[in-house]
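hey so i finally got around to running the thing on that chain from the lab meeting. sorry it took forever, my laptop kept dying and i had to restart like 3 times. anyway pasting the input first so we r on the same page abt which one it is
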Amino acid sequence: MKNNLFTLALTLSALPISISTSINPAIAESTPVESAVSIRAFNLRSYYIRHRNLLGEVSPISSSLDRGDASFRVRSGLASSNCVSFESSNLPGYYLRHQNFQIRLDRNDNTAQLKADATFCIKPGLASLTNVSFQSYNFPTYYIRHRNFKLYIDPYTTNSLFLNDATFTLVAPFTR
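ok and heres what got predicted. didnt touch it at all, straight out
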């Protein structure tokens, strides 16, 4: 069987990082190579990662507030330059991070704990190699996933619901 995978190096503009991984060629066309992104749920195609009241969730996007809340600047990981951190586009200085296993938006207080909690490693999608999954930097067996429309980090499992809930598509940002 011919291997249709290749190595794609994503260099996000304005970042001193490169993300290299073996993924399906289709991701090359669908992944924006820029420093701002919006993130669509793999199995809820009209739902996007966003923050609301400083908590992470997935929801449909309709208003300008929704568009701002669902746009993120991809930064070099606060705890590791081999990974990334997601800074809110409409609340500069605030990052997606996990706390008590729930994803929330917090101001960067420069503590080691926040830096570790706000750092995620981009991996090939757990449910589809043409997408991505976000592995927790400080809990490497945990991935961001949506559950009941809220965002959490949960431990890896081969359960198909988990694999689908922990897979996302990077798309052009709603706002910059």
